[in-house]
Amino acid sequence: MAHRDPSPLVLICIVCGAEVLTMVGVFAFPALLPLFFDEWGLTNTEAGWIAGIRYAGYAAAVLPLVSFTDRIDARRVHMTGALIAALSLGAFALTAQGFWTALIYEFFAGIGLSATYMPGLRALVDRYTGDRQPRAVAFYTASFSLGTALSFLIMGEMGAAFGWRAAFGLAACLAFLAVLVMAFALRPVTPDRPAQDTHLLDFRPVVRNHRAMGYVLGYFIHSWELFAYRGWLVAFLVFGLSVQSVRDVLLSPTTVATISGLVAVVASVGGNEIAEKKGRRQTIIVYMFLAAAVALGIGFLGDGTYWIAVIAVLVYAALIQLDSAALTAGVVAVAEDGRRGATLGLHSLIGFTGAAIGPIAVGAVLDLTGSGLTAQSWGLAFASVGVVGLFGPLFLYLTRPRPTS
Predict the structure, then answer these.
(1) Has residue 200 been placed in a domain?
(2) Domain carrying residue 217
(3) Model confidence pLDDT, tens digit, residues 55-96
(4) How far is CA 56 from CA 61, 91, 145, 354, 358, in A?
(5) 283 part of a folded domain
């Protein structure tokens, strides 16, 4: 095991690389959703539950797991989470039989995600300090989108070629590889203690930090939008192709989903850079208004020209992701010393509660408006996401710092 950390650039690559390895299986179910519709006969609401339950598992476990990083090395928490992810993905590959087994395994996969995503960020910022830390945070949060892109690509291609069980098995192996990367590439560290100690799950000091809570509530809206979009993107584009009776296209729905993840990487890093220069809070408000506006109309393009829908969803992917790194970098910047883990824990809990609800809400709207068989049904489903998105700017405005007299 290393006795000192590598250079800053190598450190970012190691931690981001480990996160990407754990991410490959995160969007396996949405990427392969048409296969599960055919094999298991799922309703849209059931599919929404499976797509969203991972984030319910995340929300259920994230508070204690991320809060532990104020007391123990976040690297150890990340390794545990990657192992849980590997086991749940492996169990899905070997024994999943339908709605209920998938729901259970995806829930435990969400617990694994809760122990890797924000603890991975904490492992990075505990070792990468200084003025450029917000940029390191942006690269790390962008690695989530890179993992998303690779998840759609690898799972989609693997599932098409060898079946969904083989795809989930590969994702399990890659998550276990992340355990080895974190174990052997980073040295142990001891986290700083707060000036005034509190109990492990006492979040009152975090809630009283209104500057932080603005970013936390904004992250709730961001996550609702992002995971509703990612959970239903492939199914939306498959609908568009079915309406036009088109089978062979240059960019398949899973390929578009992969490209959307890569677009999101650039948008996340670039959005944070602009926010750093122009003012974080007001810039995020603009980003959120733009994303909500596009969501209000994008679903109605489903029965139009496929390429127009592709361009629209890629633009939407960029707009959704513009605020991602800026929100997380903002909450890291305003977190109290010694309470960074607790702050990130609450940030994740509230954010990924939105991630859990978003796909379920879209599935429910689809079932209530025609089961996603018409463009109007898809239009109303995405419009519901846009309406929710309008609350993000409101939360950020209400929690803005007030001038002192």
Answers:
(1) no
(2) 8-188+206-398
(3) 888 888 888 888 888 888 999 999 999 999 999 999 999 999
(4) 9, 19, 20, 9, 11
(5) yes
Distance, CA of 56 to CA of 368 (rounded, Å): 23
Residue 57 within any structural domain of the chain? yes
pTM above 0.85, yes or no: no
Instruction: Tell me the CA distances in angstroms from 219 to 32, 226, 302, 341, 401, one per residue in order.
Output: 27, 10, 28, 16, 18
Q: Is residue 158 part of a domain?
A: yes
**CATH number, domain with residue 83:** 1.20.1250.20
Residue 377 tokens, joined: 């049904």
Per the listing, tokens 């980073």 go with: 186
Q: Where are the alpha helices (DSSP H) in 198-209?
A: 204-207
Q: What is the DSSP letter of 304?
A: S
| CA gap 335, 118 in Å, rounded | 14
Tens digits of residue pLDDT in 333-379: 888 877 777 888 888 889 888 988 998 899 999 999 998 889 999 99
Total domain count, the chain: 1
* Nearest Cα to Cα of residue 103 among 160, 177, 29: 29
Q: Which amino acid is at 268?
A: S
Please calculate the CA angle 184-189-193 and round it to the nearest 5 degrees.
Answer: 155
DSSP string of 299-350? GGGTTS-HHHHHHHHHHHHHHHHTTHHHHHHHHHHHSPTT-HHHHHHHHHHH
